[in-house]
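Help needed: design a sequence for this.
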């Protein structure tokens, strides 16, 4: 009996200790992410560079001018917390005073000019603003770019198309506005119905580039969770309701939902204010527009979306895209579609493998908008 009590006491003690350790790790990890983690290693390293630069200035001012103190100051603004940055700036100010007093004693050395002081002060003020901004948004003092890289990779992974059975080819190309790494266009896709059905949703969030990236990331995760969990005809109404609940100032989006039977080639396109799809009919060699004019997502509750049906026969190609590819201030939608189909005709004989990216380059290379193109081909 006593042994059982001791075992229970020891087990309870270990549970409490494990709980304290987990809470401590969780708290330190959150503090570190918010920028409250220790930065003393970087601070000490940068503080040591200040006397080194000052000594170099006093020894060879022509090769190491007083303005060289901006180098550790810039690094401090990018790496340190605001409190540590102020300490760094104090050390730089002391170094400038020492340089000025020592150089004034020797006429053969270049004097510390007011311009040097202004340059160091201006760079220091800029670095402090950057450090305060990082602290406010919660970017860690080092490896802050990892978070942005992870966000970009999450969007890329969520936009990955599933493998298709033999006889089918799919490819997706996306190019953000202005050469940025983030885009308001995204794709979510899944094989449903025991793999016999391909569901793809191409969405264009209002805005472009970085302005729309955060909303695109949130919506891509939500749409990915809805896709396959609901019957196809319920997806866009559920997506519309989700978007309305966010209550964003720019809360609308366009979307087109493809439901493709991989056995028969029959498909349905359900559009929410999105440009129509284009189908190349192998029998005629012509492109046909496929799509209905459904309402935008996130505009009003109770919106209804009507499907358009079609069939992909062997040799047919289905092309879905966002408006940045075919529409601009200088070009009407119909003109952009004609240009896109004209460029796509060049791939009819050779096949559309690898054509998505080249079509974006040929049709809308210098357009300042997000562009996305999806190709589904039946060999």
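Sure. Designed sequence:
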């Amino acid at each position: 009996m006593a042994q059982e009590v001791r075992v229970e006491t020891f087990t309870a003690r270990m549970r409490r200790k494990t709980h304290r350790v987990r809470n401590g790790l969780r708290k330190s990890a959150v503090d570190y992410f918010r920028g409250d983690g220790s930065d003393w290693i970087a601070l000490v390293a940068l503080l040591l560079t200040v006397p080194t630069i000052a000594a170099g200035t006093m020894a060879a001012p022509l090769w190491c001018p007083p303005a060289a103190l901006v180098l550790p100051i810039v690094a401090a603004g990018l790496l340190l917390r605001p409190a540590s940055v102020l300490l760094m700036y104090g050390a730089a100010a002391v170094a400038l005073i020492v340089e000025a007093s020592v150089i004034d004693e020797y006429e053969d050395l270049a004097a510390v000019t007011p311009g040097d002081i202004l340059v160091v002060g201006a760079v220091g003020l800029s670095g402090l603003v950057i450090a305060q901004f990082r602290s406010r948004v919660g970017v860690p003092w080092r490896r802050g770019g990892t978070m942005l890289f992870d966000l970009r990779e999450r969007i890329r992974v969520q936009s990955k198309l599933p493998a298709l059975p033999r006889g089918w080819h799919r490819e997706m190309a996306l190019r953000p506005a202005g050469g940025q790494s983030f885009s308001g266009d995204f794709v979510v896709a899944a094989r449903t119905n025991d793999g016999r059905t391909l569901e793809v949703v191409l969405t264009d969030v209002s805005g472009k580039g970085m302005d729309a990236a955060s909303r695109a990331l949130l919506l891509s995760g939500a749409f990915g969770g809805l896709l396959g969990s609901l019957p196809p005809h319920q997806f866009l109404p559920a997506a519309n309701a989700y978007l309305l609940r966010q209550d964003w100032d720019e809360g609308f989006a366009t979307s087109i939902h493809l439901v493709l039977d991989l056995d028969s080639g029959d498909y349905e396109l359900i559009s929410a204010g999105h440009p129509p799809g284009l189908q190349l009919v192998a029998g005629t060699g012509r492109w046909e527009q496929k799509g209905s004019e459904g309402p935008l997502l996130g505009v009003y509750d109770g919106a209804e979306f009507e499907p358009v049906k079609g069939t992909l026969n062997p040799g047919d190609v289905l092309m879905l895209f966002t408006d940045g590819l075919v529409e601009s201030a200088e070009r009407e939608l119909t003109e952009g579609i004609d240009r896109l189909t004209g460029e796509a005709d060049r791939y009819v004989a050779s096949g559309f493998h690898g054509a998505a990216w080249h079509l974006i380059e040929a049709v809308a290379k210098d357009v300042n908008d997000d562009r996305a193109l999806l190709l589904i081909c039946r060999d």
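Residues 2-33 form the longest helix (32 residues).
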